[in-house]
Design goal:
Length: 311
C-alpha cells in the first residue's frame, strides 16, 4: 500500500513547469534587450528627430514620411551593393567548405593532420573583421607589399590601384569575407556529414555509386537542413555587412559608393544623429532580411509545394 501511494504521488508531480522556469531568463533578456528596442525603433521611425548644428529638431510626428524619403534615396543601390558583396564571398565559401567538409569527414581517405588543418582554417574567424580589413588595406594599397611583389615578378609595370576600381574593391571585400567565414562553414557542414549514418555511404558504394553520385544523392539530401541553416545565417550576416567595407574604404564606400552597404547607409544617419531616418531604415532592413530568409527557406524546403499538395 505504501509503495502504491508513493507511485501515485510521483505521477501527480509535474516536471513541465521547470522547463518554463528555466526559460524565464531567456525571455526576460530577449524582452528587455531585443523586443523593447525593436518596438522603440519602429516608434522612433515615425518621428522627425535630428540635429542641425547645435539645434535639436523634433521629435515631431511625421508618420511614414521617413519611409518615403528612404525609398526615394539610393536604397536599392545600397541593397544591390550589399547583395553583390555577399554573393562574391559566399559562392567560393560554400564550394570550398563543402569540398573540405567531405574530405575531412571521409574516413576512407584517412587524411593526416586533419585536426591541424581544421584549426588553421578556423583561425581567421577568430580575428576581428576590422583588423582583417586594415591588414588588407595595407597589403593592397598603391605602394603596398602586393604591388611591390607584382612589379618584381614582372606581372605589372605600374602599381595596380585595387581600391580605386569598383570590382577591385568588391573583390577584396568578398575575399576577406570568404577567408573569415569558410572555416566556420566547413566545421558546421563537416559536423552535419559526420551525423549521417555511415551505412548509407557503404550501401551506396556497394551499389556501385561513384563519389559524385554519393555526394549528390546521399550527402546533400541528408545535410539539407544544416545547409539551409548555413545559407540563411550567411544571408543575414551579409545583409548586416559593415566593418569590412567600412574600414577598407575609410567609410566612403568608394569608388562612387559602389561598396556602400545598407548598414553603412544606416550608420551615416546615426552619425548625423538623424534618428528618425535611422529608425525607418532599420525597420526596412528588418523586413528585407525576414522576407529574403523566408523566401530562401520555402524555396529550398519546398514547404509551399507540400502545403499546396495537401490542400
Amino acid at each position: 500500500m505504501v509503495n502504491e501511494k508513493r507511485a501515485k504521488t510521483r505521477k501527480k508531480i509535474s516536471y513541465g513547469k521547470w522547463g518554463y522556469i528555466f526559460l524565464i531568463p531567456f525571455f526576460a533578456i530577449y524582452f528587455i534587450f531585443s523586443f523593447i528596442p525593436l518596438v522603440n525603433t519602429f516608434y522612433n521611425s515615425l518621428f522627425e528627430n535630428y540635429r542641425s548644428g547645435l539645434t535639436q529638431i523634433g521629435p515631431n510626428f511625421v508618420g511614414l514620411e521617413n519611409y518615403v524619403s528612404i525609398f526615394q534615396s539610393d536604397l536599392l543601390k545600397y541593397l544591390g551593393n550589399t547583395m553583390i558583396l555577399w554573393i562574391i564571398g559566399f559562392i567560393p565559401q560554400i564550394i570550398i567548405s563543402l569540398i573540405l567538409a567531405v574530405w575531412f569527414a571521409d574516413f576512407r581517405m584517412r587524411l593526416k593532420g586533419s585536426t591541424f588543418f581544421k584549426t588553421i582554417i578556423y583561425l581567421p574567424n577568430v580575428i576581428m573583421a576590422a583588423s582583417f580589413a586594415m591588414l588588407f588595406f595595407a597589403l593592397f594599397s598603391d605602394d603596398g607589399p602586393m604591388n611591390n611583389l607584382l612589379i618584381r615578378l614582372g606581372v605589372s609595370n605600374n602599381p595596380i590601384r585595387f581600391l580605386a576600381t569598383v570590382w577591385g574593391t568588391r573583390g577584396l571585400v568578398g575575399l576577406m569575407n570568404f577567408m573569415m567565414w569558410f572555416g566556420n562553414t566547413t566545421i558546421l557542414l563537416m559536423a552535419a556529414i559526420l551525423g549521417v549514418d555511415a551505412s548509407l555511404f557503404e550501401a551506396a558504394s556497394i551499389d556501385g555509386a561513384k563519389s559524385l553520385q554519393i555526394f549528390t544523392k546521399v550527402t546533400m539530401p541528408t545535410i539539407k537542413p544544416i545547409f539551409i541553416y548555413v545559407l540563411i545565417t550567411s544571408l543575414i550576416g551579409g545583409l548586416q555587412m559593415f566593418d569590412v567595407p567600412q574600414v577598407l574604404t575609410n567609410a566612403k564606400g568608394s569608388p562612387d559608393r559602389t561598396s556602400t552597404t545598407l548598414i553603412m547607409f544606416l550608420n551615416n544617419h546615426l552619425y548625423s544623429k538623424n534618428y528618425g531616418m535611422a529608425g525607418a531604415l532599420s525597420v526596412i532592413l528588418f523586413v528585407i532580411t525576414a522576407a529574403l530568409s523566408l523566401v530562401v527557406f520555402f524555396v529550398l524546403t519546398g514547404a509551399g509545394k507540400k502545403r499546396g499538395g495537401q490542400s
